């Protein structure tokens, strides 16, 4: 019997007519009309108030925090045109009362304790204040469980108990996770393991420490998500009864049966029209490079996940920090003008993705990319190559690395990272999990074509056809998208410029810190038994 077979039957028996309630999420552009109402009475009267609001402070205009690097918001009658990023900053809450009101409207609960300090921090660092719906969605299942105090004994203790349980597992065995503690504003660790990202996490948590309450924090330092628990399909009551006999050790080989045949994760290839599934085009779903997941709802921070099959809590990856050693770095700036760039799609990368068994690699997106580029009808459309064969994933029966390398002309020669500057179009495609190159490519001066199954924390902010060109997981529409860009150069250029502006001005290290900070406040409230 496979290590996950006991979970499969449980998955079916867990199905219930009563599903998880959806959090109240309002649209981003709410306007300021509702926010100038009697906020303190309507939004803060009664209930479990976590935040002591100061008296409303007087604010002049949105110029309270002037800075030459930030957008200038024109007054009435001005002929200045706002960019999309200008408008994004302009619509952010200007006062704590406004921010708290929007938070309450979206979540139907008060902001967590410490939100007032977070608001001042966000304003000082020039971060977004209101657009954190991804955080609200990620924590919504845990708040729903904590609120079931009448029907479930000690419901508010579910979160800290599950944190304690996974912390005990980490203490016993290296399962690709770290346990951090915050005690009286001092950072500590509760395990003896290490990760490649410890320096960044230690620095960031230490810097935020003076404003953080006490908590124990679980961080998954692998690229892959770990919480294979679909809150859409299962009832809340199921979460209170963990049944996974080997949490974070489930590693079916291959993973395709678990995700597809047993219904744990079916991902559409295209949401329009009749559904076809992308499971057969994802190396992660076919034969994950690193599975080791759990089918119970544990609180864990991860860098990416597949929605809605996974319930990991997202936070900024070290790949997203410019101050991180993991951030993709370019040794020189882009000095190739758009008109001088080649109208060709460019990609270089290793053969990462998953374990190769027989010829399953032909369905992996990076190998499919080479096959698509070689089709006669696509001649001259793409300049793509696998630069190195990852031999670690070629240990199973039927994997002939030499044959694969010859077939796909994998020579082992690395291409200079700055080579991307010579091309108008670049592709970002999944590897073992999410791609850490995405934000760097958006900032490169080229138009990004993005193919992924994974959600990262900024998913709501970067919009298809506004900041990048989306491509199906199986890449079946890639050539068509490139031809569109070639035929509509002005529009392609507009999308490229919008993506670059957004990354340059919004996706800063400070914004990563603001996001992480708010995640920690939500985590701390639940860890303390809040609801």
TrEMBL record:
Quick one: where's region Disordered? 50-77
Span-the-membrane segments of this chain are 20-44
Q: Can you name this protein?
A: CAP10 domain-containing protein
Q: Which UniProt keywords apply?
A: Membrane, Transferase, Transmembrane, Transmembrane helix
Mind telling me which SMART domains this protein's record contains? CAP10
Pfam families attached here? Glyco_transf_90
One GO MF annotation is: transferase activity
User: Its domain of life?
Assistant: Eukaryota
Q: Which family does it belong to?
A: Belongs to the glycosyltransferase 90 family.
- Origin organism of this chain? Mycena indigotica
Q: Which InterPro entries match?
A: CAP10, O-Glucosyltr/Glycosyltrsf_90
The record places domain Glycosyl transferase CAP10 at 289-523
């Amino acid at each position: 019997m496979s290590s996950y077979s006991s979970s499969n039957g449980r998955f079916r028996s867990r199905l219930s007519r009563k599903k998880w309630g959806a959090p109240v999420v309002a649209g981003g552009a709410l306007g300021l009309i509702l926010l100038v109402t009697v906020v303190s009475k309507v939004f803060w009267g009664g209930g479990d108030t976590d935040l002591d609001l100061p008296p409303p402070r007087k604010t002049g205009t949105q110029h309270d925090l002037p800075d030459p690097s930030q957008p200038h918001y024109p007054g009435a009658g001005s002929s200045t045109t706002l960019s999309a990023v200008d408008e994004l900053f302009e619509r952010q809450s200007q006062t704590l009362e406004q921010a708290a009101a929007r938070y309450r409207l979206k979540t139907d609960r008060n902001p967590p304790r410490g939100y007032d300090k977070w608001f001042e921090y966000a304003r000082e660092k020039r971060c977004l204040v209101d657009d954190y719906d991804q955080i609200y969605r990620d924590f919504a299942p845990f708040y729903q469980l904590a609120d079931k105090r009448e029907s479930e004994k000690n419901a508010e203790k579910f979160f800290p108990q599950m944190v304690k349980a996974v912390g005990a597992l980490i203490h016993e065995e290296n399962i690709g996770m770290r346990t951090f503690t915050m005690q009286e504003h001092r950072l500590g660790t509760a395990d003896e393991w290490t990760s490649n990202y410890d320096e960044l996490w230690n620095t960031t948590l230490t810097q935020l420490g003076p404003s953080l309450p006490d908590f124990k924090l679980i961080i998954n330092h692998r690229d892959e998500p770990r919480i294979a628990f679909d809150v859409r399909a299962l009832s809340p009551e199921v979460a209170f009864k963990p049944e996974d006999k080997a949490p974070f050790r489930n590693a079916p080989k291959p993973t395709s049966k678990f995700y597809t045949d047993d219904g744990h994760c079916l991902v559409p290839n295209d949401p329009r029209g009749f559904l076809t599934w992308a499971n057969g085009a994802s190396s992660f779903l076919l034969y994950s490079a690193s599975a080791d997941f759990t089918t119970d709802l544990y609180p864990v921070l991860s860098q990416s996940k597949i929605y809605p099959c996974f319930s990991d809590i997202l936070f900024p990856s070290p790949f997203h920090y410019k101050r991180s050693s993991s951030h993709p770095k370019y040794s020189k700036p882009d000095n190739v003008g758009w008109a001088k760039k080649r109208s060709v799609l460019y990609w270089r990368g290793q053969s990462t993705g998953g374990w190769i068994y027989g010829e399953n690699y032909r369905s992996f997106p990076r190998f499919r990319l080479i096959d698509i580029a070689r089709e006669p009808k696509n001649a001259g459309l793409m300049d793509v190559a696998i630069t190195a064969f990852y031999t670690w994933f070629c240990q199973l029966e039927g994997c002939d690395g030499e044959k694969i390398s010859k077939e796909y002309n994998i020579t082992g020669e690395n291409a200079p990272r700055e080579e991307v500057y010579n091309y108008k179009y670049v592709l970002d495609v999944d590897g073992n999990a999410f791609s850490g190159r995405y934000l760097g490519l958006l900032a490169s001066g080229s138009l990004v074509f993005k193919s992924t199954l994974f959600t990262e924390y900024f998913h709501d902010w970067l919009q298809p056809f506004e900041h990048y060109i989306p491509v199906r997981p199986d890449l079946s529409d890639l050539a068509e998208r490139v031809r569109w860009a070639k035929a509509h150069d002005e529009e392609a250029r507009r999308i490229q410029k919008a993506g670059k502006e957004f990354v340059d001005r919004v996706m800063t290290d400070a914004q990563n810190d603001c996001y992480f900070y708010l995640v920690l406040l939500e985590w701390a409230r639940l860890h303390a038994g809040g609801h």
